[in-house]
Write a structure and sequence with these properties.
This protein is an alpha+beta fold. The chain is about 35% helix and about 25% strand. It contains three helices and four strands, in the order βαββαβα. It has a four-stranded antiparallel beta sheet with strand order 2-3-1-4. A hairpin with a 2-residue loop joins β2 and β3. α1 runs antiparallel to α2. It starts with a strand and ends in a 20-residue tail after the last helix.
């Protein structure tokens, strides 16, 4: 599943922690926006880690699930490009 994850944290320490967690799962495409290609297991794992890292009264994380049909309709302006996750096998 292709995800777009945006966050806003009131505290610098929590903001840095959220960014570090998201770097484990995807690519930063804007200062507080990440893209990731994850399966359901990794989505749950990421969400659990993020839930523990934020203060829900002050911070916000939005996770948008983008279907393959919608992904083909994404329009980009400027120097960005969609995150491409390479498929590889370890033998």
């Amino acid at each position: 599943m292709f995800l777009v994850i945006a966050y806003d944290c009131a505290d610098d320490k929590r903001r840095l922690k959220v960014a570090k967690i998201l770097l484990d799962y995807g690519d930063r495409v804007q200062y507080s926006v990440f893209e990731a290609q994850l399966d359901q297991t990794l989505i749950r794992e990421m969400m659990d880690r993020l839930r523990k890292a934020i203060n829900p009264q002050e911070d916000s994380i939005r996770i948008y699930h983008i279907c393959q049909t919608c992904l083909k309709q994404v329009q980009l302006q400027g120097s960005g490009r969609l995150t491409q996750q390479e498929t590889f096998f370890i033998v």
